[in-house]
Structures are given as structure tokens and as C-alpha cells.
From TrEMBL:
Organism: Phyllobacterium zundukense
Keywords from the UniProt entry: DNA-binding, Transcription, Transcription regulation
SUPFAM superfamilies: Homeodomain-like, Tetracyclin repressor-like, C-terminal domain
Protein name stated in the entry: HTH tetR-type domain-containing protein
DNA-binding annotation, residue ranges on this chain: 48-67
PROSITE patterns, A to Z: HTH_TETR_2 (PS50977)
Molecular function terms from GO: DNA binding
Record-annotated membrane-spanning stretches: none
Highest taxon, organism lineage: Bacteria
Tagged with keyword Transcription regulation: yes
Cross-referenced InterPro entries: Homeodomain-like_sf (IPR009057), HTH-type_TetR-like_transc_reg (IPR050109), HTH_TetR (IPR001647), Tet_transcr_reg_TetR-rel_C_sf (IPR036271)
HTH tetR-type domain boundaries: 25-85
Length: 239
């Protein structure tokens, strides 16, 4: 009938798809996982699309259906791995009755666990160090999607402490980045060190990091021109 509209068909959810359709939906993720494993094992330069395809149990042509070339595939792998650790709202709601000191400790424990135990987080740093110059935008992507949310989360904890009168008011925009940077330093040293036994024991390192943070935010204002004090913090971490 003229002017009549065709009624929309039923919405088909992922769970209602047939086996073939489900495989098609899952295929890009399988390719990305295979690519990640190949890049870890061989490095970017030595990895070939055919190796990724074989690991993902698809044809080489199938990989090219989803990704134009190896460069794009690598960028998608890094982008997929550069995801925030915390759901900020969920973290604060889940631990709303914790003290601010406890929140700082939980934050650091979660951060170190993610960056030293989680394989994806460890390898993303290796990718960025080894091939960051080849893909200049990847560093920015990782910062925006991974590092910036960390700083925002830590800012929220600091602000909560300020409201409750246990932390000082900070006017330095970089304080969160400075206070959480030892975790990134440790993760990078894990990657660069040929002998991890020479690294500080992780538990001691985290405890020292926590003490450094708490002494800074609870007892004194950080003077960025006070190089002696900053040097003392650095020495405390590596003694």
C-alpha cells in the first residue's frame, strides 16, 4: 500500500545469533588476540599477517577484511590494551566507607597488580618503548585512555581527603602524575632489566611508594623547587 511503512523486524541479540554469525562477530577479537601474541613473541618487525592468521585459525584474506595492513592491526592492538584500570564511579562507591588512607593503598595495590602481573599491561609498555617512534600517535592514545584516567581517579581520592580534612589542598596540576609515576617507573624497569632479581622487592617498593605519598599529601606541601626533598624521595625508593 502506498505510503505504508514496513514494520521493523525483531531485534536479534548476540546470544540469539546462529553459530556461524557468532563466529563472524567474534572473529575480529580473535584476530586481535592472535596479533597480540605474535607481537609479543616476535616483535612488530618480524610479525607477518600470515602468522597472525594461522594463530587465529583464519585465512590471510580474512585478516585483511578487518584490518588494512599490519600497521593498522598493531594500532588496534595497542588501542584495545590501553584501557582504564578503574571504573571511577564503581571504585568510589564500592569503597565509600573506607578511610582516605585506605583508598590510597587500594589504588596503589590495584595499579601495581595491573602493571606487573597483568600480561597485557606489561606488554603495552614494551610495545610503546620498542615501536613508539614508528607510531607517534600511540603514545598519546595510551596517555589519554590509560594514564589520564589514573590521574583523574587519584585526583578524586585527593579531593575526598581534602574535603574530610585529612589531606592538604593542592594547587599543582601535576601532583597526581608525580605521585603515581613510581609505579610506571617500576614497570619500565621490569621490562628493561635483564635480571629482575636486581630490582627492589615489589612489596617493599609498594610500601615505600605508599609512605612517600602519604607523607607528601598529609604533612607537607610539595615545593617543586625543593630539589633536595625530591632527591630524598628518589633515594628512599631505591635504598
Amino acid at each position: 500500500m502506498a505510503g505504508s511503512k514496513i514494520a521493523p523486524g525483531p531485534i536479534v541479540t548476540k546470544n540469539e545469533l546462529g553459530p556461524r554469525a557468532r563466529r563472524k562477530v567474534q572473529r575480529p577479537q580473535a584476530i586481535l588476540q592472535a596479533a597480540f601474541e605474535e607481537f609479543v613473541e616476535r616483535g612488530y618487525t618480524a610479525t607477518r599477517i600470515e602468522d597472525v592468521a594461522a594463530r587465529a585459525s583464519v585465512t590471510k584474506g580474512t585478516v585483511y577484511l578487518y584490518f588494512q595492513n599490519k600497521e593498522e592491526l598493531f594500532q588496534h592492538v595497542v588501542g584495545k590494551l590501553s584501557q582504564p584500570i578503574f571504573d571511577e564511579k564503581q571504585f568510589l562507591e564500592q569503597h565509600q566507607y573506607r578511610s582516605c588512607d585506605e583508598l590510597v593503598r587500594l589504588f596503589l595495590d590495584t595499579l601495581y597488580d595491573h602493571m606487573t602481573v597483568n600480561q597485557h599491561s606489561r606488554e603495552i609498555l614494551r610495545f610503546l618503548i620498542a615501536d613508539g617512534r614508528r607510531f607517534p600517535t600511540l603514545g598519546s592514545t595510551h596517555f589519554d585512555q590509560f594514564v589520564q584516567p589514573l590521574m583523574t581517579m587519584f585526583d578524586r581520592i585527593l579531593q575526598k581527603g581534602v574535603r574530610e580534612g585529612v589531606f592538604e589542598i593542592w594547587t599543582n596540576d601535576h601532583i597526581s602524575q608525580i605521585l603515581i609515576s613510581p609505579a610506571l617507573t617500576y614497570a619500565i624497569e621490569m621490562f628493561l632489566s635483564a635480571d629482575n632479581t636486581k630490582l627492589p622487592e615489589l612489596k617493599i617498593y609498594i610500601n615505600t611508594h605508599y609512605e612517600m605519598v602519604m607523607r607528601t599529601i598529609r604533612k607537607a606541601r610539595l615545593d617543586m623547587s625543593d630539589t633536595t626533598r625530591l632527591r630524598g624521595y628518589s633515594e628512599a625508593l631505591y635504598c
